[in-house]
């Protein structure tokens, strides 16, 4: 039953076809007097509205906006109210800037610490990621702005992101990579969702009936509309058939012609097209696109304060030897490090914000009562160490009581479009730490990075405070923590391994060929390190405080758990109580423990409070592949209350009714159950989970197809194509050497040929893509002839499509 049947009945086939893709970089298609256009804008960390020439990579200028802490930062707050406040601020700002839909939050699982967009995602844990995303969505949509959780689903790497196949077993798909979306959708009720670029088990997510219909709509109850990532459409007709509603940035006339022809030829039922149009209209007609917001103004001071509170409550104290922190007003501080004057406060790519009101540690020190002995740059942002800068830093350090050294990852290390090469920090920064640690002064390291780094220098410093990417107000928030005006309450939302060598199957990430094999199965992040009993630098959920907390009186009933928490220290503080569930005696693969709840409590010195954490439908379940349903294994479960996954304070056994599961024991099961992942072979993985996807060939002289990337032209038959691929690779290397990755080059390098017909606004159609492939595959003259003829034919057709209305 169509909710908008009266409107749809008035639309022509051409108009319905045109509504299935955008009319430009940021606007959906409009039908005059019937369907308004929506303006969509990037926004996981702050709005990036481009009023002029638009692009999806953050290359062109955008309107000034509040830069909030990155999602990776916000996750460390473990604070649902804080993230909802950020969502509300985003929604209000969007309304004032006539943005109808915010493209966020991003909530993919951090499968590997080298993932290029990890700074945009919340956690390695689906429960925490889902809870946080659900509240951000609620906040964004509080005033009618549309939220767009992304990228659905199993999007774990930037390399080959538009031509990558995530090969993952069904139970892991459900429990790890979809539970986050399930919670976010059920608790946030988003009006849109964005599909990911990649395939999952051989099917592009944007045309997966299993993902978009069986799971998203039927199981999760999603009632909004589905939009592609920019250029993420593979087969336009297959997408419409299986549940995709809107292709962005827009296929224009060629895309509409595809739909029209499919209907006329009987390849697409018009009733299915009407259903997709109806799902889209349900959202468009209830959105702010139908309203005028001329009188709405942005309260920039309020927005900055929201950003400040979010940064403040997300800072994590990782080390505090001999209580060197907090600083006192009498302490003479040597402020060292380029980040103190030119902060790393956000990532790069589509989330890049034109910051309205950026603070720096150098400029805000005095306002926070800090006595500076001076400032020294210490290191260059990119390049080799500079002996003169190191000498200047050491000279300043010896004139101080405490050195506050600002280091972390530079811009070239974290960006959309590329994965990190390793977990190390820039070598010139590490050298500076070593030089300063040899002095007598106390050394406090302030970290700025959106994902984990190796810390071989940790024993050489007295304190480490991690601000992640704190947004525009992160500097002021950092001084509040360093001086003790605020007692740090952040807790890590991801594991910090000792080194990258400890990451399971780390040598296979990112996959440089089509298939990315998720051999670790359920054992992602702490689920692996905890089960394998492998030492880590900092465990999931870790964070120190300037006070101490004690737990006692744990009780468990059918509704949940209750525990008494006491502030046993000398200053007020906030504790995050974490609930983990395990089952030692089990007949199925299980992590040793999994996060299933958390709660925060703020206490004065000596104060106690009863903290309750409720059970829910996610607490004891597992996905039973044989029945394709969620089940509960009967038996005794371990209820664990801790300060982090490695610091469990109280435990209790709890009997749960459920399904008796038959033991299935074999050699591969034993390897997984022991978390001996190093011994899992490709054959083990494929045979155990019945997943066999042959890797694509990469040999010189091969024929390339629509879903091969431009990078693979290095093996093309055409010498021209090989030269272009080589030029792209060299140009990318040069941009990285300058410290600023060229996102346009990165996008093109990893782009499949099909995207040429998806990203050019109707200038190139699929017939022209076929001609380009013919050139690449060694048929220059015939391919060039077809390309030229195709260009003029496409232009002629576009002009003849007078029903297509532009620029409304």
Question: What features would you highlight for this structure?
Answer:
Glyco_hydro_3_C, alpha/beta, Glucocerebrosidase, six-stranded mixed β-sheet, Immunoglobulin-like, GH, globular, 17% strand, Rossmann fold, four-stranded mixed β-sheet, 808 residues, beta-glucosidase activity
Which class of secondary structure composition applies to the elements? Answer: alpha/beta
Query: What is the level 1 CATH name of the domain at 300-517?
Result: Alpha Beta
Distance between the termini: 30 Å
From the 3D coordinates, which CATH architecture of the domain at 300-517 would you assign? 3-Layer(aba) Sandwich
Q: Quickly count the helices.
A: 23
Shape by Cα distribution: globular
User: What Rg is obtained from the alpha carbons, in whole angstroms?
Assistant: 27 Å
CATH homologous superfamily descriptor of the domain at 300-517: Glycoside hydrolase family 3 C-terminal domain
Q: CATH topology of the domain at 300-517, what is it called?
A: Rossmann fold
Biggest sheet character? 6 strands, mixed
Can you list the strand order of the major beta sheet? 9-14-13-12-10-11
| Number of separate strands | 26
Low-confidence stretches: none
Mean pLDDT: 94
Which band does the percent of strand residues land in? 15-25%
Q: Helical percent range? A: 25-40%
Pfam families: Fn3-like, Glyco_hydro_3, Glyco_hydro_3_C
GO molecular function, one term: beta-glucosidase activity
GO biological process, one term: carbohydrate metabolic process
Protein name: Glucocerebrosidase
